[in-house]
Amino acid sequence: MATASDSELLIVSSIDKGENSSSEIDNVREPLLEGAHHAENYSIRSAILPFLFPAFGGLLYGYDIGATSSATISIESATFSGISWYDLSSVQTGLITSGSLYGALIGSAVAFRIADWLGRRRELIVSALFYFLGALVTAFAPVYVIMVIGRLLYGVGIGLAMHAAPMYISETAPSQIRGLLISLKEFFIVFGMLVGYTVGSLLIETVAGWRYMYGVSAPLAVIMGIGIWWLPSSPRWILLCAIQGKGEFQGLREKAICCLCQLRGAAIGDSASRQVDDILSELSQLSEEKEATIGEMFQGKCLKALTIGAGLILFQQITGQPSVLYYAAKIFQDAGFSAAADATRASIFLALLKLIMTGVAVVVVDKLGRRPLLLGGVSGIAMSLFLLGSYYTYLGDVPAVAVTALLLYVGCYQLSFGPIGWLMISEIFPLRVRGRGLSITVLVNFGANALVAFAFSPLQDLLGAGAVFFIFGGIAVLSLLFIFFIIPETKGLTLEEIEAKYL
Q: Do residues 106 and 159 make contact, with C-beta atoms less than 8 angstroms apart?
């Protein structure tokens, strides 16, 4: 084994002795803030697989959204359901639709307790297993209760995947293309929706077509699981284990170097050891080596990161994204488009628009930065919501206003909240609390989604659709203020630099 350099010995010594004086912290952090850190060498080819297989977790999530919209129609059809229990109540249909969402809430809660123990890679493997089991149980369900259990199992896979995938991608991606890769995960979610809508439209008139719609997820989950099995662990997670005393320090350091070499390919040359020590120099400043407690999550820089991450995700949901999409088919019908009579085709059109705009965000996120896309996109969201409110209040005889607002909303959401929300939460949490911080944020995401979806119909009955969209528009304006004053620009910074500069 190579002899450690003096700087490496200093890092190990400071960790072993718990020495974290303010002068040591300043000496380590100052070069990071002045941009004097070493460049991360990598090859595009070696970066593909560590992104691709975790991103399958997002694709399977999106596919479920798209397929379920057609599966619920198929399962309630006396002609095409292929079952005797097709006559479902609205509550039973709602459980099929939202079952995966409740499962995702369970998965997120479980991730809070076990994510840092499992590690990012093993959590993704477990999520693939739940995806696989959920798909099979749902597809072969002989009775309604078994189908709901399958939906819950699949949802647990969603919760684990949406928690672990952003962490694994952010911790293994080179900082120069981290924004692009994490935004591409959102692209995979939208692509999955498009695939789900398309498969659903093709099978909608097939007997027991809903079984095939849900069954398609099973082989995709197998591909995801096998692919992740061959990927290395996150070097940053390994180093976190090292400083928390969960193994022999030098052995874990060498393992982290080996994993980093696998992730970067031959382009990394002999700089892997240096990059690992750059990460260690930041981790050595932790005031305590043990895992963060629940109380610590709401103190100091952990609270600041949670405010940024959970706040952004909360605004992402309570600006009405689920509700606007629920109105899509009706808006197209009001506008007189004959194709809108087929809800699945209208959904395919919207999914294509979402895919295109997400692609635009992926291309420009590491060039323009996070804040410009958020500020510009959310401004468009606010404008579209006020237009929708005006349509349902004053302009009911001008359906072009509603169509324009709908397309503007979808496009601006996919430029801003859609990809940037998941990108920011994967970047902003310090390594020691990243697992727990992301699990709380994912819980906020699915919880707020469920709340908005549940509350929209009662609010609509009470206030009218126009008033509800005006309320969402006001919330969008508040989210603009939150972004302007709270959200930092993280473009081009390593995860350690983000922590040093903004937390």
A: yes
Contact 24, 14 (CB under 8 A): yes
Q: Is the dihedral of CA 311, 372, 449, 100 positive or negative?
A: negative
Give Rg (Cα) of the chain.
24
Buried b (16+ CB within 10 A) or exposed e, 378-403: bbbbbbbbbbbbbbbeebeeebebbb
The label of the residue with tokens 């991360």 reads 40
Residue type for position 438: L
Contacts with 228 (C-beta within 8 Å, 6 or more apart), sequence order: 53, 54, 121, 124, 125, 128
The CA distance from 323 to 309, in Å, is 22
Residue type present at position 490: T
Give the pTM.
0.79
**Two tokens at 3?**
């002899």
Which tokens sit at 410?
């979808």
Cβ atoms < 10 Å from Cβ of 4: 15
* 99-147 tens-digit pLDDT: 888 899 899 888 888 877 888 999 999 999 999 999 999 999 999 999 9
How many Cα atoms sit within 13 Å of 193 on the Cβ side? Answer: 23
Report the alpha-carbon distance of residue 242 to residue 256 in Å, rounded: 10
Residue 173, SS3?
coil
Locate 362 and state its tokens. 């992926």
Helices marked H in 232-271? 235-243, 249-264
Q: How many other CB atoms are found less than 10 A from the CB of residue 461? A: 10
Tell me how long the chain is. 503
Q: Determine contact, residues 437/313, Cβ cutoff 8 Å.
A: no
User: CA-CA-CA-CA torsion for 184, 189, 190, 196, nearest 10 degrees?
Assistant: 140
Instruction: Find the distance separating the first CA and the last CA of the chain, reported in whole Å.
Output: 36
- The mean pLDDT values, 10 residues at a time, for the chain of 503 residues are 39 39 36 48 79 94 88 87 87 84 89 84 96 97 95 95 90 83 87 89 88 96 96 90 84 90 77 81 58 73 90 91 69 59 66 90 89 96 94 85 90 92 87 84 87 78 89 96 94 82 80
For 28-97, the three-class secondary structure string (H helix, E strand, C coil) is HHHHHHCCCCCCCCCCHHHHHHHHHHHHHHHHHHHHHHHHHHHHHHHHCCCCCCCCCCCCCCHHHHHHHH
| Cβ atoms 389, 473 nearer than 8 A | yes
- Residue that has been written with the tokens 């002068």 in this structure: 23
DSSP code of 248? -
Whose structure tokens read 């958020």? 374
Alpha carbon 102 to chain centroid, angstroms = 16
Among 316, 325, 348, smallest CA distance to 193 is for 348
| CA distance linking residue 328 with residue 371, whole number of Å | 28
Give which of 315, 102, 71 is closest to 214, Cα–Cα: 71
Asked if 301 and 78 touch (Cβ cutoff 8 Å), the reply is: no
Tokens (6 digits) for 234: 């996150």
